[in-house]
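Consider the tokenized backbone below.
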């Protein structure tokens, strides 16, 4: 094959893998281009490997990213002529979005219209769909209203995404406006990208909008976008978040930045179950039951109230029972908010089918360059296990090795050195294992916050941290989604949940609120262990967003390599 052009950073292989040379001068623009329609698979130092999937192409189509731009970009960045089979495959995947349309016919019935005879024939012979597609119609099938979600979910599993144009019920009306000055006396207005995200989601009330996911980094104001969507739709709203701390934050933002009265906002939690025009709850509350023999009665909140909008905060955390409940409420407008669509359980296609496609996304580095999130430097320190821990690591079963590596006792020495080297910074230490965090907090004489920390105690610790009375705070994984964390500019990650890409992204996001100081994200890893392999996977999403991990080594007794 002849070079085209000779200096391209991208090598496209016939198995649909894309290899990107990181040292190439055009690495950055090519990385940002690939993020629109491809998924990063692995990221060693010199070559990053991407793959193109049907789902990634459907999302590109739903975003309205022209296929011609994908095609021209592949030719522009490719070192060699792109293989014909790859171009043909991605074209087919891209074009399948829109070939199946679910809409209302003049009689008000739902009809699945299939604009391709081959697909129409295949679906008619698909045994898995036989119980859902029971009544033929011209060019497709009639669909029962209560099967709207089930049909979409089944079809996306079969490889055929449905463009849902059936529209939505308005829900009960809500009088709400955004303030120009919040209750603290600060001027308030949506930023340009926040307005754009609201407009793209709402689409002037057309049936082509009203569902889908907005993907933005932590600290960029996803909650504010939620307020903008609520005010635009002006209907009763259910907000589902990750924990009670987030519930309180949503309530505070609603009362501070909108003209809603306090009695219009209710919290449906273990502390009280108040259904109001705007109701905030948690995934855990919705799926709560005393034991496995009884139904999850709280899920009835979806259907027993006339909601005009349902917001799924941190939508990548959506549990299976909430997926099932969502299949029955496809006539409600649905907004998902997240920093990353990555799900470690591989259910991204369920999010696509039931919540909607990705509607808005903006690279983290773009917001960093514009000053909306802080500039951050990521560093991974690798350290060998002490001799006794190495012996233990070598003899235990594989499933126990990760925890031994994660709790490497030398990580305390690295944390001490890093704290010493950041004398004027606010430092947060985060980890997975409570026993490890307790040892760390005790040795550093630092306060510790876990899921069991009482709310008044948590508030006192936060206040001391904000005032600088203590500048080091140790937190458990409850801080992954805690929106009321005080501002820190240094995070030291001492352990995590295996290879969780979304957790890595959420943790970096904790220190990305705009500030004058540079943010530093340190992750401590046991060299040559399973933890090091998991760390490579954890970093994938952030590498795709343009962050580079500087790899350094820690040798006890030698000068610290800061």
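A designed sequence for it:
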């Amino acid at each position: 094959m002849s070079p085209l052009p000779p200096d391209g950073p991208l090598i496209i292989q016939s198995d649909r893998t894309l290899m990107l040379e990181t040292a190439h001068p055009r690495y950055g623009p090519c990385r940002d281009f690939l993020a629109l329609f491809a998924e990063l698979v692995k990221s060693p130092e010199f070559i990053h490997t991407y793959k193109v999937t049907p789902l990634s192409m459907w999302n590109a189509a739903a975003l309205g990213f022209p296929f011609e731009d994908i095609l021209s970009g592949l030719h522009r960045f490719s070192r060699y002529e792109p293989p014909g089979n790859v171009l043909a495959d991605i074209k087919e995947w891209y074009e399948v979005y829109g070939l199946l349309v679910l809409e209302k016919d003049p009689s008000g019935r739902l009809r699945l219209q299939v604009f391709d005879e081959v697909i129409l024939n295949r679906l008619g012979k698909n045994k898995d769909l036989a119980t859902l597609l029971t009544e033929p119609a011209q060019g497709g099938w009639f669909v029962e209203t209560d099967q709207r979600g089930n049909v979409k979910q089944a079809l996306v599993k079969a490889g055929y995404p449905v463009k849902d144009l059936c529209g939505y019920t308005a829900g009960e009306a809500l009088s709400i406006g955004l303030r120009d000055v919040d209750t603290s006396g600060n001027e308030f207005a949506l930023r340009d990208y926040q307005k754009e995200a609201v407009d793209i989601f709402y689409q002037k009330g057309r049936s082509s909008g009203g569902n889908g996911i907005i993907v933005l980094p932590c600290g960029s104001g996803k909650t504010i976008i939620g307020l903008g969507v609520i005010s635009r739709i002006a209907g009763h709203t259910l907000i589902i978040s990750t924990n009670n701390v987030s519930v309180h934050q949503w309530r505070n933002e609603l009362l501070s930045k909108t003209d809603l009265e306090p009695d219009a906002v209710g919290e449906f939690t273990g502390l009280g179950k108040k259904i109001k025009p705007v109701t905030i709850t948690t995934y855990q509350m919705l799926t709560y039951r005393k034991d496995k023999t009884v139904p999850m009665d709280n899920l009835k909140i979806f259907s027993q109230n006339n909601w005009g909008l349902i917001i799924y905060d941190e939508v990548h955390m959506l549990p299976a029972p909430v997926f099932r409940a969502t299949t029955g409420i496809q006539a409600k407008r649905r907004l998902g908010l997240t920093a990353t669509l990555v799900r470690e359980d591989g259910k991204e296609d369920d999010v696509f089918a039931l919540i909607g496609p990705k509607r808005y996304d903006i690279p983290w580095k773009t917001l960093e360059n514009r000053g909306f999130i802080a500039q951050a430097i990521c560093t991974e320190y690798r350290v060998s296990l002490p001799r006794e821990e190495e012996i233990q690591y070598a003899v235990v079963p594989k499933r126990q090795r990760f925890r031994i590596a994660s709790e490497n006792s030398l990580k305390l020495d690295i944390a001490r050195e890093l704290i010493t080297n950041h004398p004027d910074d606010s430092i947060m230490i985060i980890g997975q294992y409570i026993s490890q965090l307790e040892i760390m907090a005790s040795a550093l004489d630092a306060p510790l916050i876990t899921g069991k920390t009482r709310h008044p105690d948590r508030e006192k610790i936060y206040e001391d941290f904000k005032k600088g009375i203590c500048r080091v705070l140790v937190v458990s994984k409850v801080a992954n989604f805690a929106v009321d964390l005080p501002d820190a500019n240094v995070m030291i990650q001492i352990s995590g949940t295996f290879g969780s890409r979304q957790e890595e992204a959420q943790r970096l996001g904790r220190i990305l609120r705009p500030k004058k100081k540079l943010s530093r994200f340190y992750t401590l890893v046991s060299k040559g262990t399973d933890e090091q392999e998991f760390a490579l996977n954890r970093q994938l999403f952030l590498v795709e967003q343009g962050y580079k991990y500087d790899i350094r080594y820690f040798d006890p007794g030698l000068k610290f390599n800061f």
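Confidence is low (pLDDT under 50) at residues 1-5.
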